[in-house]
Design brief:
112 residues, 3 strands, single chain, 3 helices, 56% helix, Histidine-containing Protein, Chain: A, alpha+beta
Length: 112
C-alpha cells in the first residue's frame, strides 16, 4: 500500500521534467515568429507601398498584390507590360522601411 502514496509524486516529477524539455523548443519557435511590433511595421510598409503604387499614374494597383515580411516586400499579380513591372518595383523600393523587393509579377497574356 505504501507504493500507491508515491504515484502522485512520481506523476508530478514526470510532468515537471517534460515541461522543462519543451522550453527549448518554445524559444526556437518564438524566434521564427514575427513580433507584434514587427507585424505592425510590415503592415505599415505594405500600406505605404500599395498607396505609392496606387498614386503612380498608369499602374493598375488593383492587379498588383503586396506582401511584406520583415521589411522585405513581394510584389505579385498581372500587369500589362515590362515597363509596368519595372515602375512598380522602383516605386516600392523608394518607400521608407523597404529593405528589398521581390518581383513575382507576370505579364498579362494578350488576347489572340
Amino acid at each position: 500500500m505504501k507504493s500507491v502514496k508515491y504515484y502522485p509524486v512520481l506523476l508530478l516529477v514526470l510532468v515537471s521534467l517534460s515541461g522543462c524539455a519543451t522550453d527549448g523548443n518554445r524559444s526556437e519557435r518564438s524566434e521564427d515568429r514575427e513580433s507584434a511590433g514587427a507585424y505592425l511595421d510590415d503592415s505599415m510598409i505594405t500600406t505605404k507601398v500599395k498607396t505609392a503604387i496606387f498614386n503612380e499614374p498608369g499602374l493598375d494597383s488593383a492587379e498588383i498584390n503586396v506582401e511584406t515580411y520583415q521589411g522585405n516586400v513581394q510584389l505579385s499579380g498581372f500587369v500589362e507590360s515590362r515597363e509596368d513591372i519595372e515602375r512598380a518595383v522602383q516605386v516600392a523600393r523608394q518607400v521608407e522601411g523597404v529593405k528589398s523587393v521581390k518581383n513575382d509579377m507576370r505579364l498579362k497574356s494578350r488576347a489572340r
